[in-house]
Amino acid sequence: MPLPLIKAVRAYVVRGGGADYHDQGEGHWIDDHIATPMSRYPEYRQSRQSFGINVLGTLVVEIEAVDGTIGFAVTTGGEPAAYIVEKHLARFLEGRDPTEVEKIWDQMYFSTQYYGRKGLVVNAISGVDLALYDLIGKLRQEPVYALLGGKVRDELTFYATGARPDLAKEMGFIGGKMPLHHGPAEGEEGLRKNLEELETMRNRVGEDFWLMFDCWMSLDLNYATKLAHKAHEYGLKWIEEALSPDDYWGYRDLKKNAPPGMLVTTGEHEATRWGFRMLLEMECCDIIQPDVGWCGGVTELIKIANLADSKGVMMIPHGSSVYSYHFVITRHNSPFAEFLMMAPKADEVVPMFHPQLIGEPVPVNGKLKLGDAPGFGVELNRDVGLHRPYPR
Ligand SMILES: [Mg+2]
Predict the structure, then answer these.
(1) Are residues 156 and 96 located together in one domain of the fold?
(2) Does a structural domain hold residue 46?
(3) Number of domains forming the structure of the chain
(4) Domain of 350, in residue numbers
(5) Which of 78, 112, 141 is the last residue of a domain?
(6) Is-above-0.85 flag for pTM?
(7) Is 268 annotated for ligand binding?
(8) Where is this site: Transition state stabilizer (predicted)?
(9) Is residue 118 part of a domain?
(10) Do 123 and 181 reside in the same domain of the chain?
(11) Does one domain contain both 126 and 192?
């Protein structure tokens, strides 16, 4: 049975948390003196919002079929991504069969290649692709994981990202990933503070619990190598996104120079099969961490995951809630998943994309079984103040 054709594509912008999870109020751990590439400027060191990390807001993409069924997705990209979706990408969907995902992706990517390739444009493409998968699932009355080949395990197992790995351990997670607070510009004193924080957490969680540092592109090779070796004493499991995503050569050397047993991870801000091919062929890391809302969507993540699998590299997607969960559960080289602790003090489990999704599942005791609701299994919360900046 052919599916109903696509009638309309709409793009909205929403402020206040959700998929743009950096868009939080004051006093949140996610904006508490976290090391970034901008930390070299003292005036931008204390708050990431000070340099504009939340300037874009959430992008919501809705795709409606002629029978009235609506698929949707949320990602980041805000107004400029909404412009690209409405003015450029919508033409490749409206009037089309929604199952033509490969052709639609190809046309979205190559029609924007002259100004796209990575970053914002690929965020927009990802949002459309995720909404398309949600629509197909809803039209077929199947969850997305079933469209992707089905579950390879019964439930998801999570580590937690946030300021309190000690509390995450009590909540049943298998590990805790902390933001690194001090970058190279804060010198030896900053390095000492970073290690003290790790030591404090190690003392609280015991020997076996995983502890990781997320460095959010803030370091240079020398600092990252030094941090890795000193952190090895406290059993750091992995060092994440230590360098600029453009510095493939640096990642290659960091992986070579890292202490035995410590994993080098990256890819959160990488995009497409071509970007991940660089990371994989140059042997830059032990785990790739694509964000399905930023790397090109499900259609592209299939290709990225297969490349990683062929190299024996794990693929543990960055955050992204249900959009990651439906993928991870279908993949042998994604044995666990990330959960972002979005409670301001990282002291309780709350839905990652709150308040934008209705029915967003959360781990209980660090585990989650996915239900069989169609699509990604969530609905759009229409009470969040949807703004459509470029109606057609
Ligand atoms: Mg990260």
Answers:
(1) no
(2) no
(3) 2
(4) 147-373
(5) 141
(6) yes
(7) yes
(8) 338
(9) yes
(10) no
(11) no
Provide the residue-wise pLDDT of the chain in tens; the chain has 392 residues. 899 999 999 999 999 889 999 999 889 999 999 999 999 999 999 999 999 999 999 999 999 999 999 999 999 999 999 999 999 999 999 999 999 999 999 999 999 999 999 999 999 999 999 999 999 999 999 999 999 999 999 999 999 999 999 999 999 999 999 999 999 999 999 999 999 999 999 999 999 999 999 999 999 999 999 999 999 999 999 999 999 999 999 999 999 999 999 999 999 999 999 999 999 999 999 999 999 999 999 999 999 999 999 999 999 999 999 999 999 999 999 999 999 999 999 999 999 999 999 999 999 999 999 999 999 999 999 999 999 999 99
Q: Domain of 108: which CATH number?
A: 3.30.390.10
* Catalytic entry in 181, 318, 326, 354: 318
Whether residue 103 is found in the same domain as residue 232: no
* CA 319 to centroid of ligand 1, rounded, Å: 8
Cα 161 to middle of ligand 1, angstroms: 8
- Domain of 175, CATH number, reads 3.20.20.120
Residue 91 carries which DSSP code? G
Burial state string for 195-212 with b = 16 or more CB within 10 A and e = fewer than 16:
bebbeebbebbeeebbbb
277 among the known binding-site residues? Answer: no
Q: Is 214 annotated as a binding residue?
A: yes
Q: Show the tokens assigned to 344.
A: 């301001």
Query: Are 162 and 255 in the same domain?
Result: yes
Distance between CA atoms of residues 177 and 237, nearest Å: 9
In-domain check, residue 317: yes
Give me the DSSP letters along 116-163.
-SSTHHHHHHHHHHHHHHHHHHHHHT-BHHHHTT--SSSSEEEEEESS
Looking at the structure, tell me whether residues 11 and 102 fall in a common domain: yes
Residues whose beta carbons lie less than 5 angstroms from ion ligand 1: 214, 268
For ligand 1, the distance from its centroid to the CA atom of residue 269, given in whole angstroms, is 9
CA distance 157 to 172: 10
Domain boundary among the residues 112, 141, 170 is at 141
Report whether 125 contacts 293 (CB < 8 A).
no
Q: Which residue has the tokens 């009037």?
A: 95
Residue whose tokens read 């996610």: 30
Active site residue 318: yes
Q: Are residues 129 and 263 in the same domain?
A: no
Are 134 and 152 part of one and the same domain?
no
Answer yes or no: is 79 within a domain.
Answer: yes
Instruction: Check: CB of residue 191 under 8 Å from CB of residue 367.
Output: no
